[in-house]
Each structure stands twice: as C-alpha cells, then as structure tokens.
Amino acid sequence: MANAADEDPKRSHAIAPAAAKPGLTGVGTALAPPIFAPLLSRLFNWSRSGIGPRLLVAVLLFSSAVTLMLTALQLYLDYDREVGLIETRLDEIGRSTTGSLGESLWNLDQNQLRLQLDGILRLPDIRAAEVREIADRPNPIRLAVGESSPRSVVTRDYPLTYSVQGTAREIGVLHVEATLTDVYQHLFNRALVILVSQAAKTFLVSLFIIYMFHLLVTRHLVTIAEFVSKYSLARPPPPLRLERRPPHHADELDKVVGAFNAMCANLERAYGELREANERLERDLTIRRRAEEDARASEQRFRDYAETASDWFWETGPDHRFTYISDRAGAFGMDSAALIGKRRTDAAFGRDAEPEKWRAHMATLDRHESFRKFEYRGRDAAGRMHHFSVNGQPIFAADGRFMGYRGSATDLTAQHETEERLRQAQKMDAIGQLTGGVAHDFNNVLTVITGTIEIIQEGLADKPEFAAIAQLIDDAAARGAEITSQLLTFARRQPLEPREIDVNALVVETAKLLKPILGEHIEIETKLADDAWSAMADPSQLSSAIVNLAVNARDAMPGGGKLLLETANRELDDTSGDGEVVRGAFVMVAVSDTGHGIPADIRARVFEPFFTTKGVGRGTGLGLSMVYGFAKQTGGTVAIESEEGVGTVMRVFLPRSKGEAPARATPVQPLVRARGQETILVVEDDPLVQGYVIAQLGSLGYRTLVASDGASALALVDQGAKFDLLFTDIIMPGGMNGRELADAVRLRRPGLRVLFTSGYTDNAIVHEGHLDPGVALLRKPYRKSELSEKIREVLAGKPPA
Q1: Where is the PAC domain (predicted)?
Q2: What is the CATH number assigned to the segment(s) 679-796?
C-alpha cells in the first residue's frame, strides 16, 4: 500500500504543521510584543552597565538560540515519527479492508459497507472514510462516515476491485482521512515543556556563571581601577594588592597587578628624574634671562606697531621724510613708492587753510614727542580726496640719538562722508520742522488773505485801478502759497495722493504746457518708451516737478537749445547719493538739456533749499529742492548727470505701480460755488481764519457752530448740538489734534461726515507721505470756490479725489 501511495502522489498528502495550526502563529505574534519587547529592552539597558551583565546576556542569548534549535530538531523528529505511524496505519487499512469492501460493494450491500466504514472510523486518528461506486448505472453507491476537513489531514485513496471469471475489475474507490490535530497538540505541549525546562536551567547556570565571574574577576577589576584613579606621584600609595586567597600559580589578575605596580615604580623614578632636570634648569636662569632680553629687543619694533595699530604703518627718518610705508596703503589708493622721501606736509592738501594746526604739529615733531589722531586731507594716486588720521611715536637709539618716527595711519574718508550725510539729514530734518511750523501759521494768514482778496476783488470790479492792486495782492498770496508748498515738498511733509498714472500721457500733457513757459528759442522733444510701466505717484506733484526741471533747463540755455523729455523702465539695485539703498522696479522720467552744465564743486548742493546760482531776484532756489523731496517721499530717487559745456540730465525714478490699469489725467473742471443749507461745526483755533470761514460759509447759505479747540467741540457734541459736517483744523492747541477730535466725535455719532483742513498736517492724517485712505482734506490756503466744492463733495458722500 505504501508503494501504491508512492506511485500516485496525488492520492496521498499531508498538511505541514505551520499551515495546519495558523492559530498558534497568531497567538505567538500577538504575545511577542507585550511580553518579550520590554524584557529585551530591560536586558539591553542592564547589559550596558558592566562586563558581567553583558556576559550574562550573551550566555542567555547563546543558550536560548541553542535550545531553540535543539527543540526544533526534536519536534521535527517527533512529528516525522507520528506522521509515519499514521501512514503505517493507513497502509494497514488498505491491506486489510479493500477486499471485503469490494465484495460488499459488488453485492450492493450498503449496510455491510456502513458497518465496515464505521469500523475504520474507530481506528486512532481516523477522521473520515468514504466508498464511491464506479458504475454506469444511475445513482451509484456513495457512503461516507465521519467529518471531512481540508486542513491538518493525511489522505489515502484505495481502488476497490472484484474478480469476475478470473478477471479483476475496479468497481469503486475507498477514501480515508487521518487527522494530525492530536499530533500538533502533543508537539505543542512537548515544546512548552522543553522550552520552560531549558530556560530555567539556562537562567540558573547563567546566574551561577555571572556570580563566579564577579567573584573571580570584576570586583578585582574595580579595585584596580580605583587604585589607578587615586594614584598620585606626589604621594605614591603602597603597591596594589588584591583581597583574595592567593592561587597556587599566578593567573591573569596577578599579572595585571604586577604590571601596574611596575608601571607605578617607573613613574616614580621618572618623576624624580624630572625634579632633578628642573633644578638644573633653574641653575641656568641667568642664561635664559639674557635670551629673553634679546627676544624683547628684536620684538620692540613689532610692539611699537601694535601700540599704534591702525590701517597701515609708516616710518620717517630724523628729517621727517618717509622711509617706509606698508603695502596696506595701496588698498586705499595710495602710491607707497611715490611717498618715500617726502614729508607729510608735502602730501597734505589744503595745508595753507589750517596754518596753526600744521605749525603745532611740526613743533610736536621737532620736540620728538608722540602724537595721536592728527587729521589732515590728502589725495590718492587717482586724485580722489581722502581724510587721514595718523598716530606716531619717536624712536631713539641706545645712546639716546633721535632716529625718527614710527606710526600708523587710518583712512577716515568713509566716516567723514557718513558724518556729513548725518549732518545733512539733521539739517534737512531741522528745516522740515521749521517749515512745518512756519507753514502752519503762514498758511493760516494766506487763507485769510486769499479769501479776503476775493471779496475785495468782487467789490472793486468797477474800479480797475484798485482791482489791479487787489490782483497784485492775490498774485503775491498765491506765490507765497507756492513757496510754502515747495518747502513742504522738499521736507517730505506735503500730503501726497498717489495713484496709478500713465507716465507717458502725463509727460505729453505737461509738454504742451511747457511751450509757452520756455519760449520759442527752446526746442522740446519727447522720447517715450512704448512699454513704459504705470507709476504710483501724485500726478499734480509729478507735473510740477517736470515743470521745475524744465524751467531750470531753460535757465541753463539762455541762447536757446534743446529740451528732451524721456521715459523708460528701470530696475535699480544701488545706493543713492545720500546713502539710501534704492532697489526695485522704477519708471524713469528724464529731463535733458544742452546747456552749460553744472560745475562739479556745486553739483552736490543743487538740491539744498534756497541754494541758487542765479542772481538776486531771479529765483528762490526751491525748484530742485521740491523735485528732490517729491521723489524721496514717493519712494523713488533723483540722479544727476552733468558735464560742463555739454549739458545736464536730471532723472526722476518713480516706483512702478502694481496694478494694470493706470489712471489717466482728466481735464480740470472749473469750480462752481455750490451752496447749501446744512449746519457745519467749525473747529479752528486761529481767530482770523475762524472769522473768515464763518463769513464764507454764511455767504454760501450754511449755518455754523464754532469751537476753538477739540475740548470745546466735544462739549458741544455732548450737549446735543445738531450739525451735518465737522469742518476741523488738524493742528490745534489743547492736546487734541483734528484727527483725534474726529475719532472721538465718530464714537458718539457714527457715520458723521468730516472734512479736515490744514496748511501742515504733521503725521495726524498722513503716514509715509501719503494721505490716509478715506480722508477728505482741504489744504490751506484755499479760495471760496474750493471751500464750497469740497464741502458739497463730503456732504454728498463722494470718495476723496
């Protein structure tokens, strides 16, 4: 039967234990992390504390590995033996039952077949048995007993034959299944017994090993380590001895102890030799002192340099002529070779302008005294001006003879330029502060003058001689307002209303205005970039800046010439002339002329207020100052390029707008004196301006309430005064400006209309040079028509222009 099974492997197969017991694998996987992971972690941490624990861990790991391997081998052998027994039993079933089953099947005796199958099922490990008839007739016999299972079984299929007239004929098949469940359970129990017993034995043996190792080795290693760590050559301890029973023969620890004791003896002997060597060195102290004096003398020169260390070094002889200049001077543009043999006075610039300082310096040199921070000016090899600061000390020979000077020099050019820029900035800030104060009071006066002169002009319409005088007064007031505006623009305190503008269109419109201003002897040309970006700027201020530049260009071409207006896109990443860093995308507006140019010595001063090269009465010197202040306040800069006899190019750089649709200039509509019937709360501290405003508003039909400061205005509001518009000055006494007053009133009456007025806004409604969004401002001085139009705009709820 075994041979039959071998010949037909499809008829017999066994399921492997792993496949037959998937539940065991799942249990092991589920228990491994919570049981073994913390144990392994603790063992690992403990094993790092010393040799003994690491040895114990190593023994346990090795023993566990060997135990697992032997257990696996034993289980495999047991499994093979148990499976062999089952297969032998199946072979016996095939030999003993197929004949009788075949005869019963031939006789179609199903009761006998079932009795025989039940007998097979009662055999050990047999799970199921089945007889299937092979016949062509309908409903062939098929009997099965037991519970068939596709897992953990060994199966056999035996042919059932019957001899008919001496010929064996196959009439059916006997199918038998034997279970391996008991085998797996037996193997599992045996594995647990082996692993537990081996683990206990391994752990006990390992503990014994580690105890013996500690007793025989590690405690003595600790004693040796403590001896070495506390050993001192100054007070050597007695030789090292271990506390243990002496062995019959020297072992490894005895050899280590002997080596340490020998090493300590050698160290003590070497230490004694070192003390003797130190004593010999002390006897040679005199020789060493002489060597130190020689070294000090050779280092004296370098010490002199160190005491006067700066950017470069120099030496002079007894006649004060340079004999040496270090190469470092070349980094500042100085020609060292050209200065050798010259005196400092020969290389100085403008020495005659400061004769007393130089006489005192030469007297110091003649007295052979040291000096520090003597400053003077000089030119480098390229002719550029530098500021120098020099330090020096005299040199004397051993016999007291004067040998010259040694010292250092520092280039202070950058520091002087920075200080000059700081002084300039402080000066500009002081002018700005002064301008603000003057503008506030002066614009109040101009407001009254311009408003009053309008009334006088209306009354003198039939008297031409007096009307002409009134017009002169009006022109003078307008000129004063223009000068005040230019001062505020230069000081960057003019409230700008920047918006996206088409620079090309604005330049074209301004060029039309320039023709009657410049005269027929000036030819005006434009060169506009087709792809010019839109710029973010105040269009009225930009137009005024172009006009100012054009007028300056006209004055530089008294005999006629050409004026070129140009636009272009520029990317800047540079430092402007006043030290500010200018980076980003800009739209350039350039005004070029063919005039006499600007001299180099005054080119740096052209933007200063009131600086002019024209004669008395031919200009205020504020035109270029206004251009400079406008460009800086807008976020751009101004650059000058000029050559005497050739001409000048003034370039204004304006920041590029982030939008896509620039606003084009719209024609200015004539102002109409719009009337109304609303009530207006007027807050003005200047009595003259207050009276003028009340009179003008009354003539326009408005009712007015009046307050001289913020506190009085709030008192009227708290008393329940009814009004439609708050018309307030910005700069007022009493600790509350117009913006603070407006905020306080709006807290009490949300949605109230507010119109501000001022000749100098400070930072109340202007930040970074730009008027705050949504703020309506009427600048002083203003005329009656401007007042009426602005009031109607605010009352109608129109956004500020």
Answers
A1: 372-424
A2: 3.40.50.2300
